[in-house]
């Protein structure tokens, strides 16, 4: 699957990602998962703002690595000097930091597929 095909997917509350051209779909996260994401994002955002370091984002936001790899990390940070990768529709390039909160339904994808992609594209 390509990024253009990915953009045609429905906005139905599910999380879609494409890794090496393979489509992955997961249902909306559980409340406990989202509570952890919120706490991590709040702490990181407080530190980043206090020190004027850049921007913190939370899912869902597309990270476009290439035409065959589009992911949505739970939390991500982009340093001030690299904010040019933040575009209207997606973040085009590697964030400086990503955080994935592991869940039973996403464990394999997050630890194997996404971690490999993050390494490959320089996160």
Structure, explained:
The chain has 123 residues and is an alpha+beta fold. It is built from three helices and eight strands, in the order αββαββββββα. The protein is globular and about 40 Å long. The model has no long low-confidence stretch (mean pLDDT 95).
What's the SSE blueprint?
Layout: H1 3-6, E1 15-19, E2 22-26, H2 31-50, E3 54-58, E4 63-66, E5 69-71, E6 75-79, E7 91-92, E8 97-99, H3 107-120
Parallel strand pairs: 4-7
Antiparallel strand pairs: 1-2, 3-6, 4-5, 6-8
CATH topology: tt1808, chain A
Strand order of the largest sheet: 3-6-8
| Number of alpha- plus pi-helical segments | 3
Q: Uncertain spans, ≥5 residues at pLDDT below 50?
A: none
Task: Indicate the CATH architecture.
Answer: Alpha-Beta Complex
Provide key terms for this protein.
single chain, 123 residues, alpha+beta, tt1808, chain A, three-stranded antiparallel beta sheet, three-stranded mixed beta sheet, 3 helices, 8 strands, globular
